[in-house]
Amino acid sequence: ILCEKPLALNSAEAQNMYEIVKKSGIIGMVGFVYRFNPSVLTVKKLIDNGSIGKIYHFRARLSTPRLSNPDLPLEWRLDRSKGGYGALSDLGSHLVDLARFLTNDEFALLTGIGQIFIHDRRIANSNDIDKVTAYDAVSIAGNMKNDAMINIEVSRFSAGASTFEIDGSLASVRFANDKLYIWKKEVIDHQKPSTEFLPLDIEQFQLYESRLYANFIRCIQTNTHGKPDFYDGLICQKVLDTIDESIRLGNVWK
User: Fold this and answer.
1) Fewer Cβ atoms within 10 Å of its own Cβ: the N or the C terminal residue of the chain?
2) With contact defined as beta carbons under 8 Å apart, do 238 and 11 qualify?
3) 254 lies in a domain?
4) What does each C-alpha distance from 127 to 13, 23, 76, 123, 124 come to in angstroms?
5) Which helix (H) or strand (E) holds 109?
6) Rounded to two decimals, what is the model's pTM?
7) Where residue 175 sits, what CATH number does that domain have?
8) Which domain holds residue 42?
9) Whole-number Å distance between alpha carbons of 138 and 90
10) What is the pLDDT of residues 157-214, one digit of tens each?
11) Is the residue at 242 inside a domain?
């Protein structure tokens, strides 16, 4: 089973799906496609081989202006009962998983701020108006268990952007719209800063989805359980639930 992200509308549903797949032995994967971006995989290698050092910061932003037009009718993505937590579920799930994947760690503390910018929209093919119940934008702050600080922002009302930055004790990296920059911490002439740029190569042009599909097919052919799996989907959904609770209740989860 290859399931779209997020795995479910809430962690109770995700837990049930995870238990069914685990008990049956079915190969189950979740579509966290950013794990298959070549630049992300390059950063992953740098982190895993110690080139970045101890991670201090993970900052990420994912946005699109697709729903910023107030004349657009209400759709399922704007309905909490059908689309979950809106931008948090749709976009935030990618970055929550990316934070876990790159830091090799779990969340220890989380707080969130969410906003619905357009509260009422016209129902499609009707003059009736209904409420928007899913977030248009969300900001997340927190810590991982290894003390790395996390800042994530997602929005459906902002110019399209896909960026993340990681600062470590030995180096920093910045991914911005398919370009990867690496800054190494070393003594240099401050007038001539050392910046390494990894240009887009031919491999980068492959769709992330196709790399995910290829990995899924290999798992089926070899009868192995690959990543990201339903456990990753479950953990991500628990984090999304926690952030939603923080937004609604105005508290910090530990």
Assistant:
1) C
2) yes
3) no
4) 34, 48, 17, 7, 8
5) strand 107-115
6) 0.89
7) 3.30.360.10
8) 2-249
9) 11
10) 998 889 999 999 999 999 987 788 999 876 544 445 444 544 444 344 456 678 888 8
11) yes
- Max CA separation in the chain (angstroms): 65
Q: Which amino acid is at 9?
A: L
Q: Cα–Cα–Cα angle for 149, 152, 199, nearest 5°?
A: 95
Sign of the C-alpha dihedral computed for residues 53, 112, 236 and 238 taken in this order: positive
The answer to which of 60-74, 144-158, 203-217, 236-250 has the lowest mean pLDDT is 203-217
Percent helix / strand / coil, the chain, rounded to 5: 35, 30, 35
User: Could you tell me how many helices (H) and strands (E) the chain has, helices first?
Assistant: 7, 12
Whole-angstrom distance, CA of residue 17 vs CA of residue 32: 17
* 3-class SS string, 167-215: EECCEEEEEECCEEEEEECCCCCCCCCCCEEECCCHHHHCCHHHHHHHH
Gap between the Cα atoms of 208 and 27, Å rounded: 20
Residue 49 lies in a domain: yes
Tokens of 113: 């701020």
Residue 130, domain member (yes or no): yes
Residue 1 contacts residue 28 (beta carbons within 8 Å): yes
Spatial distance between the Cα atoms of 110 and 45, rounded to a whole number of angstroms: 27
**Tokens read off for 104:** 């090799």
What's the structural domain count of the chain?
A: 1
- Kindly report, residue by residue over 224-245, the tens digit of the pLDDT: 898 999 999 999 999 999 999 9
